Amino acid sequence: MYNTSGNEFTNNKRGDISEVINGSLHLFYNILGTASPTAMWNESCGEQLLDFGRPEKIIIGVMLAIITAVTVMGNTLVVIAVCVVKKLRQPSNYLLVSLAVADLSVAIVVMPFVIVTDLTGGKWLFGEVFCNIFIGMDVMCCTASIMTLCVISVDRYLGITRPLTYPARQNGQLMAKMILGVWLVSASITLPPFCGWAKNVHTAGVCLISQDFGYTIYSTAVAFYIPMLVMLVMYYKIFRAARKSGAKHRFTDLSRRDRLETVANEALRMQGLKPPGVAEECAALSRLLNRERRNISIFKREQKAATTLGVIVGVFAVCWLPFFILSTARPFICGVECSCVPIWLERTLLWLGYANSLMNPFIYAFFNRDLRSTYRDLLRCRYRNINRRLSAVGVHEALKV
């Protein structure tokens, strides 16, 4: 998913590219807030590259290192939280662990090499063999992250709309098979360049995923467009179910109050009669209250699921959609030998996509009280009695309802 280029400078071409430097790269340097560096040229692909000075390299390196470190920290917290806290050790949270592992892999095995390449102006320094390995790791981890988000949206939808008939939430083996399927689908996109269908590009410092037309359409469709379509459909269905439930809840709210008041008045009026009559009325009132509490609980759960999935889909689309539009259009615009996309544009969209791996653990923690509490305890090194404290918080919240 990443394109890098060589660093061969030719003095006789400075005049030819000076206007392009002042134009296309001006926006990139303004965004970084740094002074304008010199430009470099790769003769094999005709790509314009960047040559940062020491201050620019320090600023960019620190920013990208912070993104990588926060990504590692956030996703590590997810894995530790689910493994340590009994309340979170549920089959439905196995998908969160799979997502965290994919995002953690992006941060550990992909981002460091991208940072080094960025700081050298875009030149790939690690050779042709590792170029293929690097592209394979990049595609595998990013696709697994995206596919897991897709499966999570389906899991949330089935868990809300079919709580009694959907078995995966109670069946750890079935959930494990779903996770295995995610990684196998990711492998189906990673392996073709190693099997002769599509060959990655590596010439004179360029490391670029295969630009074969058929492979590009297949990989972008399976890795992004199909999962995004599924997520949008699931969000629409959950949103529609929550809206129907909300309308029903509002419609029955006034009549519910009237019924409760009637039953309560009847119970008070019959207090002078024989005890069995009072007991029957109190039992009816208790059943009615329990049913209404259950309806309200379902309504709140649907509303929360709709809000959570809406934020997940929105952040996912903002992070990855621009990059995949660029990746799909690139071979049709530039050809299959190399990339003609400006380096600053490609780098910006690439890191925007990587930022999704940073945001995922914090999105789920924002909507999950148990994860938030566990994060706080882990960051404060309060490991002892962490399960007891979380159980006490759950009981306290339940008593407040």
TrEMBL record:
It is a multi-pass membrane protein. Residues 74-364 form the G-protein coupled receptors family 1 profile domain. One of its GO terms (biological process) is chemical synaptic transmission. One of its GO terms (cellular component) is plasma membrane. It is found in: Cell membrane. The chain crosses the membrane at residues 58-82, 94-115, 135-154, 174-195, 215-236, 309-329, 349-367. InterPro entries: 5HT_7_rcpt, 5HT_rcpt, GPCR_Rhodpsn, GPCR_Rhodpsn_7TM. GO terms for molecular function: G protein-coupled serotonin receptor activity. Keywords: Cell membrane, Disulfide bond, G-protein coupled receptor, Glycoprotein, Lipoprotein, Membrane, Palmitate, Receptor, Transducer, Transmembrane, Transmembrane helix. Belongs to the G-protein coupled receptor 1 family. G-protein coupled receptor for 5-hydroxytryptamine (serotonin), a biogenic hormone that functions as a neurotransmitter, a hormone and a mitogen. Ligand binding causes a conformation change that triggers signaling via guanine nucleotide-binding proteins (G proteins) and modulates the activity of downstream effectors. HTR7 is coupled to G(s) G alpha proteins and mediates activation of adenylate cyclase activity. This is 5-hydroxytryptamine receptor 7. It comes from Lates calcarifer (Barramundi). The lineage of its organism: Eukaryota, Metazoa, Chordata, Craniata, Vertebrata. The gene is htr7c.
